[in-house]
Design a protein that fits this description.
- This protein is an alpha/beta fold and about 350 residues long.
- The protein has one domain: TIM Barrel (Alpha-Beta Barrel), CATH 3.20.20.70.
- The strands form three sheets. It has an eight-stranded parallel beta barrel, surrounded by five helices. It has a three-stranded antiparallel sheet with strand order 5-6-11, with no helix packed on it.
- β3, α3 and β4 form a beta-alpha-beta unit.
- α9 packs across α11.
- It is globular.
Length: about 350
Amino acid sequence: MSLLEQAGLRLLHQFDPETAHGMALTALRFGLAPTAGTVTSPRLRTTLAGMSLANPVGLAAGFDKNATALRPLSRAGFGFIEVGAATPRPQPGNPKPRLFRLTEDRAVINRFGFNNDGMAAIANRLRERPRDAVIGLNLGANKDSENRAGDFATVLATCAAHLDFATVNVSSPNTEKLRDLQGKDALSALLAGVMDTRNTLDRPIPIFLKIAPDLTEAEINDVAEVALGSGIDGLIATNTTLDRDSLTSAHRDEKGGLSGQPLFEKSTRVLAQLYRTTEGSLPIIGVGGIASADDAYTKIKAGASAVQLYSALTYQGLSLVPRIAKGLDDLFKRDGFNTVSEAVGSAA
């Protein structure tokens, strides 16, 4: 990390986290943040659900909720980018404050509640997206919707023409009863509606399902069974957790989803179980607590075909992205893997 980036992070940390996040997005849009360009190599180039990636390191949903910084993010070294979540109608989300840094734990708690500009505004921004990037959208449901399952299909139908993939997000803990849609019957019905919509598109795109880390072993097996039977193209493991074990920060008891370093082990266990249960037949994106190339490598060896990060950027800045990608290249070379796919699941 450069001295300039260190100074920028120190400045941002003088502000409340949500204000600082808005400042970071503004800095990106004005070209004031470091961008590494494309980071790739023969070992790093890979495919994910049929999509060609320069490297397997992606940006998780939530960083750019409203797709306002697509162009600079596409030059930041990511192999793919996920924006959103988007809901059919704009909504303000939960009352502030709703974002908390847990510096001692290298973690973040948020209870945003799907605050976003709505699918129409986000679709308009996606229409102007850079064409040389791989961009997906996290699909959400309005808090006051009478048909939350239908909301996911509605957002997909509106935005799909400008996307490379989409993610069904039923695992955010910040919208009341949303996680109830992870139950076997409810999830089957929801995914059937989404896939019916996907199959009517002029250009069908891959659909991923993002799950919570707080499921029991039996619930994870149910999710895997539904996923395999639904025709979706992959899984994302995992969203944030409600667990507060071993935290030391004064903010540890704030309500919301916990992300960052404390989530790493729990999310990796869920990932490995999904990989074993599905016998590697569905690609999995590993998310949760990644802050180094070693962390990303652990996820890949546990069964991830690609990884995503977000919270670690709060503490290490955007230069973390090329550091992780280049570090993965070195680790693959060290262990004799010529491609990402050769390493996937090697320690599951």
